[in-house]
Automatic annotation (TrEMBL):
It comes from the Bacteria. This is Thiolase. Residues 237-379 form the Thiolase C-terminal domain. It comes from Pseudorhodobacter turbinis. Keywords: Plasmid. One of its GO terms (molecular function) is acetyl-CoA C-acyltransferase activity. The keyword Transcription does not apply.
Length: 384
């Protein structure tokens, strides 16, 4: 029996981003605050209406406490679950459950980072691991390079396939005035880019930017009475089987196999019905792995699937229409920006990159080193 008890029970009624790219002079919390205030205003609500907070950051050990203090909130419910960049897709499910249970009435999901202007370089994401430390990995890049190498060896995936992912992301970014990396990019430029961790070059790696995002959720029966067009929560699923990359059961298959199936089942929709697919592209291999694991193509066929502009503007499948973490924004934890783009597309607010008739979107978040996988399905009123 399918559990669809949460389907359509909540809606995103406020959404905003702030400081995308470079925001010199602002702390991570100040950027988060800007996004939160704008999201609440977008919903036509006041900050004192917020009675639940969901937050995860890479800058605060106790994120909900810091958010509550900074914004002057007194929530009835709060949750600081941090499973990396996928936290926010999980927060949508948690917020929906809290709303449905009557534990809160207006939930804020938020994130902020000044990673680029505060220092820039990515640092190790892993606690010391006795089985990894002797090899001196540079995580997360080392871990993703390992998975990429295995996919290449097992399925014949090529650097040209990876380049197709980067080029598609740039093509979408060039339609997005907020994207940090814009301008022409050729396959030769991607393939000749400086190697960072073989076989991943600079062009295969996500951006290092500042940025913040926030969304506001209410119960569905209240959503139509608020200022902005509601975007409904239809389903979500999560799966997590390892922390360290060396403990990953199969380097070519992620837990998205299970999180995606659970989300689609809860939403009661098929892949063919999806208008938009937002994937956490911290590295080019992510897009290929997730397209396979979420069922858009058979395992091992991801590299060939993305060829010939299939996921680029004008292609068969709209993927990462904001430009993704590769060309739009990646401030350490990217998952909430997937949601922001899905909301913009479903509302019809995406400008030059707008997809015709976008009613149904999949957002897939990834945390750690291909560790936590969380998938959420969002839809317009027409999908209820």
């Amino acid at each position: 029996m399918k559990d669809q008890s949460m389907r359509g029970k909540s809606a995103i009624v406020g959404m905003a981003t702030a400081g995308i790219g470079e925001a010199p002079g602002f702390s991570a919390m100040e950027l988060l605050g800007q996004a939160a205030v704008a999201a609440v205003a977008d919903a036509g609500l006041k900050m004192q209406d917020i009675d639940a907070v969901f937050a995860a950051t890479s800058s605060h050990a106790f994120p909900t406490m810091s958010v509550v203090e900074y914004l002057g909130l007194k929530p009835r419910y709060f949750d600081g679950t941090n499973v990396g960049g996928s936290s926010f897709e999980l927060h949508l499910l948690q917020a929906t459950m809290a709303l449905e249970a009557g534990l809160c009435d207006v939930a804020l999901v938020c994130y902020g980072s000044n990673q680029r202007t505060a220092g820039g370089a990515l640092v190790s994401m892993s606690e010391p691991q006795w089985h990894e430390t002797p090899y001196k990995p540079r995580h997360p890049i080392t871990a993703y390079a390992l998975a990429t190498s295995r996919h290449m060896a097992q399925y014949g995936t090529t650097r040209e396939n990876l380049a197709d992912v980067a080029l598609a992301a740039r093509g979408w970014a060039n339609l997005n005035p907020e994207a940090f990396a814009r301008g022409p990019l050729t396959k030769d430029e991607v393939l000749s880019a400086r190697m960072i961790s073989d076989p991943l070059s600079k062009s295969d790696c996500c951006l290092v930017t500042d940025g913040a995002a926030a969304c506001v959720l209410v119960r569905a029966d209240r959503a139509k009475d608020l200022a902005a067009k509601p975007v409904y929560f239809l389903g979500a699923g999560a799966a997590n089987y390892h922390r360290s990359i060396v403990a990953m059961p199969d380097l070519t298959t992620t837990a998205a196999v299970d999180s995606g199936a659970r989300a689609l089942e809860m939403a009661g929709v098929s892949r063919k019905e999806l208008d938009l697919v937002m994937l956490y592209d911290a590295f080019t291999i992510n897009t290929i792995l997730f397209l396979e694991d979420l069922g858009f193509c058979p395992k091992g066929e991801g590299g060939r699937f993305v060829a010939d502009g299939r996921i680029a503007p004008g292609g068969e499948l709209a993927v990462n229409t904001n430009g993704g973490g590769l060309s739009c924004v990646h401030p350490g934890m990217y998952g909430l920006f997937l949601i922001a783009e899905a909301v913009a597309q479903i509302r019809g607010q995406a400008g030059a990159r707008q997809i015709d008739g976008c009613d149904l979107a999949l957002c897939h978040g990834n945390g750690g080193t291909l560790s936590s996988q969380c998938t959420a399905i969002l839809g317009s009123e027409a999908t209820l």
